[in-house]
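Anyone have tokens for Protein-serine/threonine kinase? Sequence:
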Amino acid sequence: MLRSTACASAPSKQSSRIVSNRMRRRLVSSVANYQESQQKLKTTTSAAAALSTSSASAASAAHARTVSVQSGRSLQQKFYENRILDRYTAQEPKKVTLRQLVLFGRQLTEDKLVASANYVRSELPVRLAHRISDFQFLPYIAGTNPHLKMVYDLYWRAFDEFRKFSPVKTLDDNRRFCDNVKKNLLEHSQVIPQLGMGVAECADLVAPDEIDRFMNQMLISRISRRTLAEQHICLSEQYDDDLRAHLGLTATEGYAQMASAPRGFATQRIGIVRADCSVAQIVNECAMHAAGLYEDAHHLPPGTAPQVIVEGHTDATFMCIPAHFSYIIHELLKNAMSHVMERYAARLESDAAALAASSGRGASAFGSEPLFPPIRVTVCSSHSDIVVRVSDQGGGINPEVLPYIWSFTHPLKAKRLHNFHAVNRMEARVNEADAVAPLMSFGFGLPMSNVYAKYWGGSVNVHSLPGYGVDAYVQLPRLGNVVENISARRPQVATGV
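Reply: yep, here.
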């Protein structure tokens, strides 16, 4: 249908030649980075393999890598027809809620831990299969991009390993399974940079709506898989720690005496979930971290960055995964601080001049008044929801940019996504900001924050007040009773006839 339409429009030979040349140059540029991308993949895989801590784990990892190589031999054919995926894409993901994760961890026994391992073992291939299928629906020009192809390779190998992993029956089996999951988590820490670079290179070759839809599906599914994997690993490590203490074993003793738990042994653990997470505490921690980043970047003394004032229901708590909520709040505070400091940069120059004129005696041009207006964070709590508003006086968002703040493909965003070339790994966590210059923008923070919120049935909204500032709102369910917001099926795109 698209080809017929194109023929009907009868473009000139000259314009067709220009488009063809542009696509050819794009392909040549992409292929030029292929060898470097493959070398990074080999390096990361080698580092991940080092996580195996026993001979049995090493043998299992070696077998998995052998399977991966065998799978890779026919990767070109599998890219467009992978009949092996049919059995998995026909299945719907078994979604969970935060409350289910918490309740499962309480009174955790060996049988429940083994059951958790087998749930994760069977669920990860299903969720990976649906995303592998998404790659196959991309236009061919995007499928040949080396960065996107690297992600496809990683997903296919992980899918192949997990679907072939034997059922977990014992604690030792579970430890080997956790080693395998950790290895894959480390390998997949390069997925976000590779997706970012791939999308940047395909921004003018694929419809923007299609790329945004693809990226949102990829990222929200990635969060869901890492949530299941990290929750099970955390429960397993906590269970082993408690079992070791119960048996009176030291930290240096191996697992030989921990092959099985004593009859009736159980622990009270909830993994990576926090049932009573303090909103104000998370906001204050993120504010201190963000302020430190900008003060270091601008060579300012501590306490110079805009003050963050928390008000409203400051004692509110809710059920969440702190790493997810922290990422959202941290990104919003970073954006607010960046715009406020940029708008009032002249005050820094005036203050520096006053200090120099006073021969370093500490006289400020503004006396005891802060250099920057404060950022106000208002917390509102109801029976079912938590709402957080972040208000700044940074002047608002450029009206030309505002409609595209959630997009990955706007030309301004595409330019920033090229900054991922300077980043080897990224897991979308707060502590990663220490390894990246705070003044380096990827155009990724707001869309990723929205993906985190949507995953648990929430949302992030931004309202710009031209000439004054921005009000950003985060809404999240409070009780942890909302199932994961993941879609297995690829959305059908309506086409004209």
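DSSP finds 18 helices and seven strands in the chain.
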